[in-house]
Amino acid sequence: MGLFRARTPEPVNVLEGVDAVLADLDGVVYKGADPIPHAVESLQRVAADGIRLGYITNNASRTDAQVAEHLSSFGLTVSAADVVTSPQAAMRILTTLVGPGSPVLVVGGIGLVSEVEKAGLVVTRSADDRPAAVVQGFAPDVGWTQLAEASFALHDPAVHWVATNTDWTIPVARGIAPGNGTLVSAVHTAVGRLPVVAGKPEKPIFELAVERFGAQNAVFIGDRLDTDTLGAQRAGLRAIHVLTGIDRAKQLLAAPKDSRPDFILDDLRQLFEPYPVTVTSKDGTETRVGSAVVRMTGHVVRVVSSGDSSIDLVRAGTAAIWNSGLSIHALDVDPALYS
After folding, report:
1. Residue tagged active-site, from 19, 26, 64, 129
2. β partners of residue 170
3. Do 206 and 190 share a domain, yes or no?
4. pLDDT tens digits for 32-65?
5. DSSP H helical segments within the chain, as ranges?
6. Of 61, 96, 173, 315, which is most buried, counting CB atoms within 10 Å of its CB?
7. For the chain, what is the domain count?
8. Of 330, 321, 325, the residue nearest 296 (C-alpha)
9. Which of these, 175, 130, 170, lies nearest to 149 by C-alpha position?
10. Which residues pair with 241 in a beta bridge?
11. Which of 24, 223, 226, 247 is catalytic?
């Protein structure tokens, strides 16, 4: 076993110096209609500590008021102003592209329609109305007819196209379902164009949140690496990944450089627990987090000690692989790290 330093550095405080905690919703706060265990009481504690709390969602199917009502039903104190939605970010872009009162073809539900109207634009559902733009967001009832109308409009290259997000999947109560990215892809296939994207992982939605909450040192909590962590990193925010949603240990081990979070948590209670520092042995072959130790020799990654905490083992495994500079596809990884 490689020798470690005699003295292990002190753990860090995840929320040290943070003035705003921005949280994703699906997979972080709730799954379907129900709250995720320990999420509500943890977020209540964040607010009680005087840290500004805001919520960011790519889901365009509901209004900010509807989302706030849902969160309030769990016992959280939330107003519509505390919720930043991808339709709001889409309007931030769209109003720079078209003039006031312009007709906009909407593919989506009430969450998108309400923001288009608030922005002083005119909602249409038909390409025959010669819209100046198409704005597209997820809603459960979006079908072929709406996608076809968008395609008809977008065959004119002068018509702008803004998508609230391009998430391939969306978590719902019954499991994982196709997301807005699949619907955007259908239109893209028909017209051979790509939209401007407002939601995660693009920067506009994060910039809107930081501006609204006046944050100087915000962190973002998410459950997806390809949207939440990537977006937070692009926006210059610290990223916290919680293992209660889409991406688990296996995806973390394989995360590309631009999608690696600063902190990894089992659940939101660990926001308030000391976060152990990663320590590398003197010969560079072993990585320790807490009492979990992972050895990496060449392209072989093995667990030396599972330690007292499964989350510390995940942290040690990711640190070892990420610091190696090697692609996950070239490694022989111990299944104990992700099973």
Report:
1. 26
2. 177
3. no
4. 889 999 999 999 999 999 999 999 999 899 999 9
5. 39-48, 64-72, 86-94, 110-118, 144-154, 180-191, 203-213, 230-234, 249-253, 310-324
6. 315
7. 3
8. 321
9. 130
10. 222, 264
11. 24
End-to-end CA separation in angstroms for the chain? 24
pTM above 0.90, yes or no: yes
CA distance 150 to 124: 11
Structural Rg of the chain based on CA atoms: 22
Select from 221, 256, 271 the last residue of a domain.
271
Sites in the chain below the pLDDT cut of 50: none
Q: What is the predicted pLDDT for the residue at 4?
A: 60
Contact 198, 93 (CB under 8 A): yes
What is the structure's pLDDT at 3? 63
Q: How does DSSP classify residue 27?
A: T
Q: Tell me what pLDDT residue 71 has.
A: 97
Structure tokens at 142: 């979006």
CATH number of residue 165's parent domain: 3.40.50.1000
The answer to whether 129 is a known catalytic residue is: no
Per the CB < 8 A criterion, the answer to whether 141 and 93 are in contact is: no
Q: Are 90 and 162 in contact (CB under 8 A)?
A: yes
pLDDT in tens, 180-212: 999 999 999 999 999 999 999 999 999 999 999
Structure tokens at 240: 């916290």
Domain holding 38, by residue range, is 20-58+201-271
